[in-house]
Design brief:
Blueprint lengths: L1 H25 L3 H10 L4
Helix pairs in contact: 1-2
């Protein structure tokens, strides 16, 4: 179970780091908008 947890944490961290720059630059959201996009799933 621990390996599933750590693998999913690494996978989602790499996904977030790979998508944050395109969100900020291509959609003209800036770093604040990209941060808001990642904060939406919290609610």
């Amino acid at each position: 179970m621990t390996s599933v947890y750590s693998t999913s944490m690494g996978l989602f961290a790499s996904l977030a780091s790979g998508l944050s720059i395109p969100l900020a630059q291509d959609l003209q959201l800036g770093w604040q908008g990209a941060l808001i996009v990642w904060g939406i799933p919290l609610f």
